[in-house]
Amino acid sequence: xxxxxxxxxxxxxIDLYSYLYNLLLQIPDGMVSTYGDLAVALGDxxxxxxxxxxxxxxxxxxxxxxxxxxxxxGTAGNYALGAEEKIRRLKNxxxxxxxxxxDNFNKLVFRDFKSDYPLKKLMMExxxxxxxxxxxxxxxxxxxxxxxxxxxxxxxxxAMVIKEGDNIVVRYFKEESKFPYIPGYLGYHETPYIxxxxxxxDGIILIDGNGILxxxxxxxxxxxxxxxxxxxxxxxxxxxxxxxxxxxIYYNNKPLGYQVNKKTIVSPGNKIGLEKSVEYIRTIGNGKxxxxxxxxxxxxxxxxxxxDCRDRTKAMDSGSISAGIRGFExxxxxx
Length: 335
Description:
Layout: H1 16-24, E1 33-34, H2 35-42, H3 48-56, E2 69-70, H4 83-92, E3 97-98, E4 101-102, H5 105-108, H6 118-130, E5 144-152, E6 155-164, E7 167-176, H7 186-198, E8 204-208, H8 220-227, E9 232-236, E10 243-245, E11 248-251, E12 254-261, E13 264-270, H9 274-285, H10 291-306, E14 313-316, H11 318-324
Parallel strand pairs: 1-2, 5-8, 8-9
Antiparallel strand pairs: 3-4, 5-6, 6-7, 7-14, 9-13, 10-11, 11-12, 12-13
């Protein structure tokens, strides 16, 4: 860990699932709350969808009463144990449900959560991290790696494909996530996996996600790159933010990314500038989505389906891999 930023590295300490479940305990008997109200209590209303997702994974519904959470219009909505069970539990609390909606909803909705608004704190932390972005163009090492993570429920399955010369190595890491996917907070969701996968690797790292193309200029590639002092490039498969002009992507009138093609959105993470990031991705991908990133994605899917929980490193046949990554060579000397 880059010692300068140790104090910023509190993402591993944030179990947002537990934090949310404990908020449920504040709802008084005979009252309900909404997904949006819980999102506000977490510190960012954009997390409302993630609130619903986290509640769906509540393993202790008798302890943490997620049945008390309804839609903003008073509709009871879905429940992991079934809609009928949700209505039954609400009625047991003395709450009338008529045609699927809470009777006297406005009088029964609870919003006065006591919270320290963790997502607000994370936004402030991201702003601090973004102040240390390094977009100078350093020499790019010959070793390159690509990282991707896929999920089943709370479990994330990370894979890192490393190319060093003609050698291809794949690393794997599986762990239960303590932080769900929330737009704008991907660094907190996936950095624990990247940290465990990268370990002693010292080349350039391509990350499935954005870099400085982010509302706080702190996408996953930047978040990880700055905190661990690594050279990183973010490569996303779709454009989620900004306005495009001549393939450059602008946010707040700043060029923060570039669309190489419809499925390859490039933004620098750390220790590299935009133009050099674009040139590098174009070089290794021949204008297409880089094959090494596609390989990383494919490996996460294989790992997820295998059910093998071991963290392991394996060498792959470089001949067969090279056949699938035509044009993947070290960039020209001016890099």
